[in-house]
Design goal:
Elements: H1 2-8, H2 12-16, H3 21-43, E1 45-58, E2 66-69, E3 74-79, E4 86-87, E5 92-97, H4 103-141, H5 146-181, E6 184-186, E7 191-196, E8 204-205, E9 210-216, E10 221-227, E11 240-245, E12 264-271, E13 281-287, E14 305-316, H6 317-326, H7 347-352
Biased composition (Polar residues): 342-354
Region (Disordered): 335-354
Protein name: Multidrug resistance efflux pump
């Protein structure tokens, strides 16, 4: 201080100026902030994520929304359900009637006639076989010519052909009867009728025409997410995924999963090998067995929109800022150093901290 006083003694005006206390405090605060930011970016971890959007779907194709079609041509005679009706397996949905109201009666009459023809032909064939035996005996004894014996054999063959023809006709009638028996359209399984798309009695339907849309009630649900192709090479089955369901309150912190609220955990089940029509790659996410289950209906229904973040490697905040500013891809492990799917880096420990 004496040296400073002696040094400033030649500059009396400068010596009379004192730095305000507020300025010194602000300078120290600014320096502390800069040092703190540098330390924060160097030592605070950040979990990189690959974002994606998608929807809730059913894993089993039979559990997805499906169309109920008419199996026979005709007119819809009666509806047993309306939009939104709950049905059990085998419950009637609609009944189709043929344009010919007497078709079933005629088919049954044709089948009865075919049965009679079969019985008559079989009886005649048995008689013809007895005649063959008698002609064979007479032929061997020389009492009948060979031609009569061969004609008897031909007659047996003719009756056998008539029996076969009558059975084929009965089979054809049975097929027609079976087809007409599906005039009653029934629910394939437990579920809900979403929409009636058929007409009234004046509307003709053909086999394959859609008459209703049906959705099963119980299904194993998964989430399909569409992610950018730049991130797909770094995603593998078993990666942890954080999910935000549409309509479910949530707060997401991408780099700190343990701080997020209202999020649900999943893991990557499968990855498409080719891009979808939108240019993105689809991944399937299933519930994580060691985490709380996903919300059930009616809170999260099939088709509900979902946002997801695939948890990748853990880096420093500074590295992540540098990567974002340069638009570089996510950090990756060299081949052979990819972490095991059951222990996907420190992200699991972050999730456990929730």
């Amino acid at each position: 201080m004496p040296f400073r006083a002696n040094h400033l003694s030649h500059f009396k005006t400068l010596a009379s100026i004192r730095t305000p206390r507020v300025t010194r405090v602000l300078a120290w605060m600014l320096m502390a902030t800069i040092v703190g930011c540098i330390l924060f970016m160097m030592f605070v971890p950040w979990v990189q994520t690959a974002p994606g959007t998608g929807a809730v779907i059913a894993l089993d194709p039979r559990d997805r929304v499906q169309n109920i079609t008419a199996l026979v041509p005709g007119r819809i005679e009666q509806w047993y359900v309306t939009d939104g009706s709950l049905v059990k397996r085998g419950d009637p949905i609609a009944r189709i009637s043929d344009n010919d109201p007497n078709l079933l009666d005629r088919l049954r009459a044709e089948r009865a006639q075919a049965d009679v023809e079969i019985v008559a032909a079989q009886q005649a064939m048995r008689v013809a076989q007895l005649d063959v035996s008698r002609m064979e005996t007479l032929y061997r004894e020389g009492l009948a010519p060979r031609r009569d014996y061969e004609l008897a054999q031909i007659k047996v063959s003719d009756y056998a052909a008539k029996v076969a023809q009558a059975k084929a006709e009965r089979t054809r009638v049975d097929v027609s009867l079976n087809r007409q028996s599906v005039q009653m359209i029934r629910a394939p399984r437990d579920g809900r009728v979403l929409r009636i798309q058929g007409g009234d009695n004046a509307t003709m339907v053909s086999p394959g025409d859609i008459v209703a849309t049906f959705a099963p009630e119980e299904s194993q649900r998964v989430v399909e997410l569409y992610v950018d192709g730049r991130d797909v090479p770094l995603i593998h089955p078993g990666r942890r995924v954080r999910l935000e369901f549409e309509g479910w309150p949530a707060i997401q912190f991408s780099g700190w999963p343990s701080v997020a609220q209202g999020m649900f955990d999943g893991k990557v089940r499968a990855i498409d090998v080719s891009a979808s029509a939108n240019g993105l790659f689809r991944i399937l996410v299933e519930p994580a067995a060691d985490r709380p289950p996903w919300p059930q209906e009616p809170y999260v229904r099939l088709g509900a929109k979902v946002r997801g973040w695939v948890l990748m490697d853990t880096v420093s905040v500074g590295f992540e800022l540098w990567r974002q500013l340069n638009d570089f891809p996510l950090q990756f492990q060299r081949p052979g150093n990819v972490p095991d799917a059951s222990a996907t880096n420190p992200t699991d420990s972050n999730a456990d901290a929730k």
